[in-house]
Write a structure and sequence with these properties.
With 304 residues, this protein is α+β, with helices and mostly antiparallel strands. 41% of the residues lie in helices and 14% in strands. Among the domains are: 6-96, 2-Layer Sandwich (TATA-Binding Protein); 120-198, Hypothetical protein, domain 2 (Endonuclease III, domain 1, Orthogonal Bundle); 243-284, no CATH class. The chain has helices at 19-23, 75-79, 82-85, 99-107, 120-128, 134-148, 164-169, 172-176, 182-191, 195-201, 205-213, 220-230, 244-253, 260-267, 274-284; strands spanning 6-12, 35-39, 42-49, 52-61, 65-72, 150-151, 159-160.
Length: 304
């Protein structure tokens, strides 16, 4: 058997740069089998590329460099896509807010918007987050990956998401047994035949969004979250979220209740970078005072 491909690459980092701030929205719980932060200066990802599974280990060496090691059959394929994956094609330095947003960036600097080399797994993650708690989404994602994915080529207990071929072969009860809600399971099965086409469209976010709008069960929240978190679209705006408008309102004006319409008005001064503001508050901002069960801002949605 031929040895697995392996490469080492050093990427020069802009300053400031933070792996945790950049990839925080990708990790579904500390037990996520596909993404881990071994410590504050490193990240480990397990991805499935068109050439095969890979494991990426990246270590921030001082302030200036990111040392990246990739193992697996897709290592050579991913090489030229590594800068975009780590958000180095993004330029958050263009965003110069004032007031509370500026203060939050100062306390939590270094967020860059990554561009996913493949989007199918991220889209499945977002579907699993529709209409459920974040904990339930994290649990079903972990069970799905560990049941129908593959062990990553590294020796660290990571798992690679299921392949498109595997997803196409699954039945409704295969997904439900992983804790996926029936509605989500039906949507994943409807999406599975579309993944190849969606990957081809990923290089053109506008065309991709237009195609996704035609698919039943995919609404603005999923489309915009995918655009901002996986396609580097800094002005994507999440609407239809259960609690995000309240979090935005609480952070920006200390009013605990709001609506999508009011949230859009509050975000208007940040046009061009509205996803950055939402990401910043999702990851680091205070929660609005709750009425009823405590729900983090991106835990419940109204897509579909």
């Amino acid at each position: 058997m031929a040895a697995a491909e392996s490469i080492r690459v050093t990427l020069h980092l802009p300053q400031p740069y933070s792996l945790r701030q950049t990839f925080g929205l990708w990790r579904l719980s500390k037990a996520d089998p596909c993404l881990q932060f071994p410590d504050s200066s490193s990240v480990r990802l397990a991805l499935r590329t068109p050439r095969g599974p890979i494991q990426i280990d990246a270590l921030q060496a001082g302030d200036a460099d990111l040392d990246v090691q990739v193992v697996g059959d897709g290592a050579f394929w991913i090489r030229e896509r590594l800068p975009a994956l780590f958000g180095l094609n993004d330029n958050p330095g263009e965003f110069l807010p004032e007031g509370r947003v500026c203060d939050l960036i100062r306390r939590h600097p270094g967020a860059h918007l990554p561009t996913a080399p493949v989007i199918s797994a991220r889209l499945v993650q977002l579907v699993l987050q529709q209409l459920v708690s974040w904990e339930d989404a994290a649990s079903s994602w972990s069970r799905l990956v560990r049941t129908h994915g593959d062990e990553a080529p590294g020796d660290c207990g990571m798992w690679v998401p299921p392949s498109v071929t595997t997803l196409r072969s699954l039945g409704y009860y295969d997904l439900v047994q992983c804790g996926v809600l029936p509605r989500q399971a039906r949507l994943v099965l409807r999406l599975a035949p579309e993944f190849s086409r969606l990957e081809r469209l990923a290089g053109d976010p506008l065309r991709l969004a237009g195609y996704l709008k035609k698919l039943p069960g995919i609404g603005p929240w999923t489309i915009q979250y995918l655009a901002g978190s996986a396609l580097g679209q800094s002005d994507a705006v999440l609407t239809g979220d259960y609690a995000l408008p309240h979090a935005i309102s609480w952070f920006l004006r200390e009013q605990p209740r709001s609506s999508d319409e009011e949230m859009l008005r509050l975000l208007e001064p940040y046009r061009g970078h509205r996803f950055r503001v939402q990401q910043l508050i999702l990851q680091n901002g205070p929660l609005a005072p709750r009425r009823g069960p405590k729900i983090r801002a991106h835990w419940k949605k109204a897509d579909g």
